[in-house]
Amino acid sequence: MNIAILGAGYVGLTAAAVFARIGHAVWLVDTSEEKIEKLLSGEIHFFEPRLAEIVKQAVEKGRLIPTTAYEKSVRKVRAILICVGTPPRPNGTADLSQVFSAAAELSKHIKRYTIIVIKSTVPIGTAEKVKKIIQKRVPKRLFDIASCPEFLREGSAVQDTLHPDRIIIGTDSRHAQKILLELHKKLSGERVFTDLRTAELIKYASNAFLATKISFINEIANLCEVVKANVDDVALGMGLDPRIGKAFLRAGIGYGGSCFPKDTRALNRVSIAHRYHFRLLKTVIEVNREQRKNFLKKLAPVLGKLKGKRIGVLGLAFKNNTDDVRESAAIEIIRELIKKGAKITAFDPKAGKNAKTALADLKITEKPEEVARDADGILILTEWSVFQKINWPYMKKKMRSPIIIDGRNLLDPKRMRALGFIYHSMGRP
Ligand code: NAD
Among positive and negative, which fits the CA dihedral 75, 176, 58, 320? Predict the structure, then answer.
């Protein structure tokens, strides 16, 4: 099937590469010339495991055509997938300007029946607004609207897109439903057919629920510290119950990234706009904010006054296996430490460059071992598994004081203490 994808970010580029791989002919449109030029030369502008390789193959085979030109790309396709950004406004509502401008632009070029699919995460009622924008130029009979939200996780985006758990098809049109089934035919996952508004809410509800699990286990971790219990064992004991499940029960410094913080706040704003008081969600957001502060509170009793202290940081990305630092807890914590006068040296396997744009003066090292040099303490802020394999006895020799505060419960407390470290983590005795 000939399709066009608007937006070559994490979602759009991954969807484009995967749809090309399963046999569709894909136009990939982005307004950024820089990103498109990079794609044309066989490179991608962010780190995502396996993605660069399948993008390159698809571009070489001519199955994926990156472009900035709307006209030639959207004119002859059967479906147009909107995958542009929906960043948060300062008040928490979703900024839909990219979605609305993509809709206005594509509407100039539709000359035959096309399905417009919204994959971006958007507030309930957005698809109807997009429909109105397109209707200004395109007769009703020439298009249908659908909402197929995306659930990929950065760090495993290719795998998640090739093997989704479910594919949500929200549309009022039977014809559109049939074509979208055909588009997704070679992908796994249960199909859920519903209306536009429900499809939009499924995405927000899913992210809000996962954020709730994280805030819940963080509250349990805080309680563990008071009652002297071990959150890892609590999470294991809970997670083995299939009604609960093990995923997202890892205590730490809270969720970050470009989705959970933004989507929980946006859902809260949607609720407020409809005069619904979503108490649980508000608390989830608050607990997450507090958890970063709880981590910071752990530092002073162990490290003393932070002014002038040399602190090594391992991890800058909002999670492992990505270079994304959007709303990263690590960045926020480092910002606070710098404000308090601490001298930070940081390492991340992939996110160093992006962290530099968020914190221009941050000293970033090429190797994890370098953060240990004369350090008064080391903080672990992202759960990269490579940090478990570091030569910790060597690190200890390089440090001024052998203090580790592990915000991700990544290392084994017994082992670290046996190596002579003063080791603290989240909710573990
Ligand atoms: P992104 O910021 O990485 O990419 C968006 C892209 O859209 C950019 O490359 C930008 O240049 C381009 N763009 C902006 N306006 C455009 C226009 N008018 N026409 C064509 N291109 C345009 O965003 P992302 O992380 O890929 O997220 C996209 C959407 O998917 C968001 O709504 C997000 O919430 C949702 N989502 C993201 C993830 C994730 O893990 N990143 C997962 C699921 C859903």
Answer: positive
